[in-house]
Amino acid sequence: MSQSPNKWHQETIESQKSKMEKTVPISPLPSDIATLTLPNGKTIQLPVYKGTKGPPMIDITQLQSKTGYFTLDPGFSSTGACISTMTYIDGDKGELLYRGYPIETLAKYSSYIEVCYLFIYGHLPSQKELSLFEETMVSEMMINEKLIEFYKGFATDSHPMAIMVGVVGALSAFMHKDFDVNDPRDREQIAIKLVAKMPTLAAYAYRTALGLPIIYPNKKYSFIENFLYMMFSTPMNDFNVDKVIVKALDTIFMLHADHEQNASTSTVRIAGSSLANPFACIAAGITALWGPYHGGANEAVLNMLKEIGNKENIPKYLQKAKSKDNCFRLMGFGHRVYKNYDPRAKVMQEMCYSVLEKTQRANDILESQLAILLEQAALKDDYFIQRKLYPNVDFYTGIVYEALSIPTSMFTVMFAVQRSIGWICQWMEMMSEKVQRISRPRQLYVGEDQREYIPIQDRKEEEKSRVCKLPMHSSLFGLVKV
Ligand SMILES: CC(C)(COP(=O)(O)OP(=O)(O)OC[C@H]1O[C@@H](n2cnc3c(N)ncnc32)[C@H](O)[C@@H]1OP(=O)(O)O)[C@@H](O)C(=O)NCCC(=O)NCCS
């Protein structure tokens, strides 16, 4: 990067270099051979790899070239797409490790900044390393003043996630010439800049939506305190830091920091595999996170609890979630990987009590009671038992956010801020590999076979035209129901 290196880089350039090299994943040697017999009677031997933990994996990279067959796995239920050293999930045990450390231990004794350091450098920092790292992170929280202009261009009722997609993507316009994605030191700086700027971008999205003046980060506050400061302070009053709230938020940040190859992380890796600008790749990850089956679930849970309203309605909504006649699901329940209680949900549930005890807001207490009753009812229900559907991290997150005065539309933005460290370190990990290949899945084509082109004058009219007719000027006013 062309800018002069900051204090962190001056002091650590050599000492960290060798440690960072340990974060580069090394392909293990095959531990076994699998023999596959194909419908044409041909057999092929495929190498099997065993990681430090987790099920063995059959390497099928040679399958097509040796047999002419591809594999089909929509939704990637059985497919691994990378080799990683970052995060491990045992879905049956309900276990989550960040670089080998259990999430419960980190949540209890560590901090988000420490977890960021752990992901970037592969090891936990000493006190000196941590202090210097946090100082650097805080000093990188400011954003280019011109970027603030972007916020003024959004419609006043814009969803903050829409704003985040735009402004994070726009970071690539400010940072594109002065780094080399193939240089590990540049990648490290990209990671620090991204993670440091995310809370600022999020707080500005919130404040501009409300028409509130923007608050700049301040070096006298910690990273997490700065986020609260930029979200909730006013230029007219002193800002009081509440330690219970800061600890709660710090823990939520840690719980969401990474979660191996989920939809948004895979999106970042796929976008990054084309060597696209890393900030643009993160914007792609934000779009994947937005949906209610992924990061948008925290917002959907709270809306669902409000809709259920009281405990008498629980059976009706459970029935609705079980019925296949509608697309309603019990939000905050179920997970592709966890077939047991999500360990993050346990930490979240405990934290929910401590935050509610502190804030004492009657509505939040009622919502948490409703959530507990809903969870208890679902966990006793055969439908949820048979499908191993347990509460995931998002089941209680929304209640805690609401108690912290974070508005519902900001919930998924919070997730994006917290997950930025996971996304960018997964990107760094991918970029550090010696052999990089563009991501390019295959498909089973079931469309038309090759057919004859008919000139337009010879084509028959469809019985009903499929082109919808839009009123004049509809292009200015969004979607029109026709
Ligand atoms: C997370 C999620 C997308 C995982 O999906 P998945 O691994 O693809 O699982 P499937 O969609 O194949 O679901 C398996 C079965 O459980 C059911 N199911 C899954 N989650 C359910 C839920 N929350 N409520 C009701 N039924 C659910 C499905 O309908 C399906 O039933 P079937 O076998 O009778 O068809 C899914 O559980 C879900 O939509 N949960 C709610 C959203 C949420 O909380 N997301 C946050 C994840 S951290």
From TrEMBL:
PROSITE patterns linked to this entry: CITRATE_SYNTHASE (PS00480)
Single GO cellular component term: cytosol
Residue segments, region Disordered: 1-24
Biased composition (Basic and acidic residues): 8-22
An individual GO BP term: tricarboxylic acid cycle
Keywords: Transferase, Tricarboxylic acid cycle
Transferase in keyword set: yes
Active site, UniProt feature: 335, 394
Biological pathway: Carbohydrate metabolism; tricarboxylic acid cycle; isocitrate from oxaloacetate: step 1/2
Pfam families in the cross-refs: Citrate_synt
Family: Belongs to the citrate synthase family.
Protein name per its UniProtKB record: Citrate synthase
Organism: Paramecium tetraurelia
Lineage: Eukaryota, Sar, Alveolata, Ciliophora, Intramacronucleata
